C-alpha cells in the first residue's frame, strides 16, 4: 500500500507525519527500483500503522530530490519527526534486513 508523494505534498505527507516515513526515491526507467518495489509493497502492508512507505519519482519531482541530495536511485530515506534520520542506497538489502531496519524506528517511535 505504498502511496506516491510529490514536491507539492512532501511536507504534508512526509515531514508532518506522526509516524516514521520511508521515502523511496525512484524512476520508471530504473531496474533496481522496479525490483525492490514488491518488497516495499509487502513491508508497507506488514508495517501499516507503524511506518508509512511512500514513493517519490525523481524525474517528476526534482526539487525534493535535489534538496535531500539524492544522486543515485533507488535511495530510501527514513524520516522521523520531520527530519531525515537514516538512508539506504541501492536495492541490495533483503526484505528481512529492511524490515528489521524499519521496525527499529517504529519501535523507538512507540516509546
Automatic annotation (TrEMBL):
GO terms for molecular function: protein-disulfide reductase activity. Gene3D superfamilies: Glutaredoxin (3.40.30.10). GO terms for cellular component: cytoplasm. Disulfide bonds join 30-33. The record marks 24 as: Deprotonates C-terminal active site Cys. SUPFAM superfamilies: Thioredoxin-like. Residues 1-107 form the Thioredoxin domain. The active site is at residues 30, 33. The record marks 31-32 as: Contributes to redox potential value. Keywords: Disulfide bond, Electron transport, Redox-active center, Transport. PANTHER family: GEO12009P1. Belongs to the thioredoxin family. This is Thioredoxin. It comes from Devosia nanyangense.
Amino acid at each position: 500500500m505504498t502511496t506516491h508523494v510529490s514536491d507539492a505534498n512532501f511536507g504534508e505527507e512526509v515531514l508532518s507525519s506522526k509516524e516514521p516515513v520511508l521515502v523511496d526515491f525512484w524512476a520508471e526507467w530504473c531496474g533496481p527500483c522496479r525490483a525492490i518495489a514488491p518488497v516495499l509493497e509487502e513491508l508497507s502492508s506488514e508495517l501499516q500503522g507503524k511506518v508509512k512507505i511512500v514513493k517519490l519519482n525523481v524525474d517528476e519531482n526534482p526539487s525534493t530530490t535535489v534538496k535531500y541530495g539524492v544522486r543515485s536511485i533507488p535511495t530510501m530515506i527514513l524520516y522521523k519527526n520531520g527530519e531525515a534520520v537514516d538512508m539506504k542506497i541501492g536495492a541490495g538489502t533483503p526484505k528481512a534486513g529492511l524490515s528489521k531496519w524499519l521496525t527499529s524506528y517504529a519501535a523507538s517511535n512507540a516509546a
